[in-house]
Amino acid sequence: MTESNKIYHVPVMLAECLEGLNINPDGVYVDVTFGGGGHSRAIFEQLSPKGKLVVFDQDPDAKNNAWEAPNFHFVAANFAFLQNHLRLLGIKEVDGILADLGVSSHQFDEEDRGFSIRGNAPLDMRMNQNGELTAERIVNEYEEGELIRIFRNYGELKNARNVAQTIVSKRESNSIKTTQDLMTALEKCAPKFKDHKFFAQVFQAIRIEVNQEMDVLERFLTQTANVLKPGGRLVVMSYHSLEDRLVKNYMKRGNLEGEIEKDFFGNVLKPFDEVVRHPIVPTEEECERNSRARSAKLRIALRKEQHVKK
Ligand SMILES: C[S@@+](CC[C@H](N)C(=O)[O-])C[C@H]1O[C@@H](n2cnc3c(N)ncnc32)[C@H](O)[C@@H]1O
């Protein structure tokens, strides 16, 4: 934890994720979204000294939650580079991969990072503070059509066009620099009594674009089949319908578009079999305890034997 009395992140569906990974104590596991390390610690506790855990996080703050052990390795990088980093560590194959997508509670709670609709902060929203694209650049420089695309696709806003037009017209007189500037500019677009949800959707859309979350998820997913050994598990938790669709397509059909590809003999070509056909969702009790769990969907797949490796 970076601050003594603040909880960094409460892991979502912890027991379900562990069960999904079906841990072999001597195996090699990767948690590509380390965050507060809740899932990682629980995985690590199940490993023998022969087992190994490699974790990724692109946010330097997460490194403060890491620990020292000969069989634990923190990689400060984007999981879009999974295969490269494993190669650098001399790891060819792993037994299980966990991804708990999106941002941590810590990132939301740190007001100055601009993820939250509470308080007032510069429009930033970068998970990796070395990244070039900020929320401020998107809001002040993106063309109207691009803004419509992100509010419609990533925010699922019904009035995406109106929101984009309002931003374009407001920024003509004054650039929109802070989270409060943005909320004030969009006051008239917010539905009555549902303004909290509306602003959360606006912020979510911008955050997904800032961090190129769909693009890196695609790049990550297509590498998992190359690094998981036959029988290895892919466990992915998503919080947004677009993310879940990509994960579902990839696990079910072996490609991001969800198209069925067959070989000469009519066998479906796909690297994974789903372990559960429908996503696992948190219990009501967990959602009450931890509101961040509410939109979570967990999918689990098993790496098949016969897929030809790239
Ligand atoms: C939902 S939190 C994970 C919480 C974690 N499972 C726990 O128990 O504390 C997501 C974390 O993944 C990191 N993250 C998100 N996308 C990433 C990416 N493309 N590459 C590396 N880290 C990423 C975020 O910085 C954040 O710390």
UniProtKB/TrEMBL annotation:
It catalyses: cytidine(1402) in 16S rRNA + S-adenosyl-L-methionine = N(4)-methylcytidine(1402) in 16S rRNA + S-adenosyl-L-homocysteine + H(+). S-adenosyl-L-methionine binds at residues 37-39, 57, 79, 100, 107. Pfam families: Methyltransf_5. One of its GO terms (molecular function) is rRNA (cytosine-N4-)-methyltransferase activity. It is found in: Cytoplasm. InterPro entries: RsmH (IPR002903), SAM-dep_MeTrfase_MraW_recog (IPR023397), SAM-dependent_MTases_sf (IPR029063). Belongs to the methyltransferase superfamily. RsmH family. This is Ribosomal RNA small subunit methyltransferase H. It comes from Taishania pollutisoli.
